[in-house]
Design a protein that fits this description.
By secondary structure, the chain is an alpha+beta fold. It has a single domain, classed as Pnp Oxidase, Chain A (Roll). It has five helices and eight strands; from the N terminus they run βαββββαββαβαα. Strands 1, 2, 3, 4, 5, 6, 7 and 8 form an eight-stranded antiparallel β-sheet that branches. The longest helix has 10 residues. The radius of gyration is 17 Å and the shape is globular. The relative contact order is 0.22.
């Protein structure tokens, strides 16, 4: 049976932090808008900030649907599945916000991710999610799968880019500055990267 939680702590937090990947779902307000569902991985790119807030790093890619949807309406659902051990699915429904590199909060938030060097990865924003509803369900239909390791292709690809060339790369893509449905996406050009501030979670 599913259970609703008031906060992200204890066994729930331990489960979330142990998963090597999760999924982020967003949608525009328009009835005919394009729903987006994205897998998220890379060790060290997700953190629990407190009992109601989580955050993950948004890296360079070929679109910016999540950012565009959050800028329009803020709705987001994150989902974790147990691919090993006891079956479990956890969903965090809430309000998301993309914090961009020129935001005064960016450096402090980046300090919560000590295991990732953002420079070679093309980091473009930090997504902060405040939970409105936290639930788990059985997960009986999720198969057993093993985690071997992260792919290193993303880091290798974007280690060749600096802020200027990364902005040029984004400018050539159809769905970075605006979403598939024409919503404002990632603001361009990218502001310069900022120094990391170490912060304890």
């Amino acid at each position: 049976m599913g259970k609703t939680y008031e906060r992200i702590d204890g066994r729930l937090r331990t489960f979330i932090e142990a998963q090597p990947m999760f999924f982020a779902a967003t949608a525009p307000l328009a009835d005919d808008g394009t729903i987006n569902l994205s897998p998220k991985g890379l060790q060290g790119s997700f953190v629990v900030l407190d009992e109601l807030r989580v955050a993950y790093l948004d890296f360079a890619g070929s679109n910016a649907e999540t950012i565009a949807h959050l800028r329009e309406n803020g709705r987001i659902t994150l989902m974790w599945c147990a691919f090993q051990g006891p079956p479990n699915i956890v969903r965090v429904h809430g309000a998301g916000e993309p914090v961009f590199r020129d935001d005064p909060r960016f450096a402090e938030l980046l300090g919560h991710f000590p295991g990732i060097d953002p420079t070679p990865h093309g980091l473009r924003a930090i997504i902060v999610v405040t939970a409105d509803l936290i639930r788990d369900t059985c997960g009986y239909g999720v198969p057993f799968m093993t985690y071997d390791e992260d792919r290193d292709l993303h880091g290798k690809r974007f280690s060749r880019e600096d802020d200027e060339s990364l902005s040029a790369y984004f400018a050539k893509k159809d769905h970075i500055a605006q979403s598939i449905d024409g919503l404002p996406g990632l603001p361009l050009p990218l502001p310069p990267g900022v120094p990391r501030t170490r912060t304890s979670v």
